[in-house]
Amino acid sequence: KLSKRLQRIADYVSTGGRVADIGSDHALLPVYLLQSGKSRSAIAGELNAGPYMAAKKQAADANLTALLEVRQGDGLAVLKPGETDTVTIAGMGGLLMREILETGRQAGKLEGVTELVLQPNVGEDAVRLWLLEQGWYLANESILEEDGKIYEVLHAKRQPDAEALNAKLYDGSFLPLDWDRSALKGLLIRMGPHLIREGSETLEEKWRLEIEKLEKIRKQMSASDLPEAASKREQFQADIERIEEVLKCLR
Ligand code: SAM
């Protein structure tokens, strides 16, 4: 049985496609996708030798070597253009994830890929921004709590009307806030437009914790009398207030 986090990722993967799971570790996700019959074939990519060997063993133990190819390499470099429909990347930071996606894109590895399922551990904003800039429609996202940790899963699709759909998604007109557009868009990119619309308790909890962290930093800056500290402090205060305003809209 998959963890709740991996199950949520699996739920987003479209049925009947070829999937590549990058940074697959023990290849739990592709093994599940094949065993459940959801995916037709899979590639597990791993940079490091330990997890690569573990994934190989997992594929063999599950009798899936015909359907699951395990490849060692950096990010999307393990893929040939056009050989996969869905790319999943989970359990790493958003900045590394964006780096992997962008390097892969430049090498043509995303050509023919129609769907991305991404679960950044932190730095979700970097991933959302990259998707937006690259014209991937953020079709859905979800937030969940497991073992005391909060995870976000992003589901992006390549489709002709992606730009128009994203424009609507990020215009924030559903929020009763009279901020300027770019401030609103910035916060939507950070907090997740679908997640804000859904307004779950888990989202609220996540951002209460974030505010606590920001407060801590702001207080530490109060102790500093460096000339730039005052304006930084104000920026933090303004940021906290903005997040709180959005949280108020959730209820
Ligand atoms: N995706 C699995 C999950 O979500 O449960 C495993 C997550 S594990 C914390 C991250 C994995 O990514 C590690 O096994 C690591 O070796 C691999 N990794 C890190 N950087 C990578 C890269 N540039 N290319 C491929 N794999 C990478």
From TrEMBL:
Keywords: Methyltransferase, Transferase. InterPro entries: SAM-dependent_MTases_sf, TrmK. GO terms for biological process: methylation. The keyword Methyltransferase applies. It comes from the Bacteria. The keyword Methyltransferase applies. One of its GO terms (molecular function) is tRNA (adenine(22)-N1)-methyltransferase activity. This is Class I SAM-dependent methyltransferase. It comes from Paenibacillus soyae.
